[in-house]
């Protein structure tokens, strides 16, 4: 029973993260600022992989195969966003920034059901 809820939570995180990549236009600029080649295409591929793999995890299908791309995405995200903070600003700032998740707040806090 607990493993089902863990799968739902993990899948939810990746699916909502990918939806934000489609909805928030700043992600393209962020990818370009990090020096990622072809930022729009890379952003699209990452978002599609997160949706697909997140859905597979929720559905309990091909878990081992679905986690590989997600692990690669997370390693890349840590390398591009957190490691520079650790190297330039030190451990305290790195720990503080690691506990914040600036991009999730607008979707979670401002989410409203569709109304007419």
TrEMBL record:
Pfam families: DoxX (PF07681)
Source superkingdom: Bacteria
Transmembrane regions listed in the UniProt entry: 6-24, 36-60, 66-87
InterPro entries linked: DoxX
Membrane topology: Multi-pass membrane protein
Subcellular location(s) of the protein: Membrane
Principal cellular location given in the protein's record: membrane
Name assigned to this protein: DoxX family protein
Species annotation: Paracerasibacillus soli
């Amino acid at each position: 029973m607990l493993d089902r809820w863990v799968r739902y939570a993990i899948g939810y995180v990746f699916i909502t993260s990918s939806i934000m990549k489609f909805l928030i236009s700043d992600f393209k600029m962020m990818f370009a600022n990090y020096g990622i080649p072809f930022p729009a295409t890379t952003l699209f591929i990452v978002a599609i992989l997160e949706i697909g793999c997140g859905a597979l995890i929720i559905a309990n299908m091909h878990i081992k195969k679905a986690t590989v791309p997600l692990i690669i995405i997370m390693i890349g995200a840590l390398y591009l966003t957190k490691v520079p903070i650790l190297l330039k600003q030190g451990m305290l700032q790195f720990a503080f920034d690691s506990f914040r998740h600036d991009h999730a707040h607008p979707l979670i806090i401002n989410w409203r059901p569709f109304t007419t």
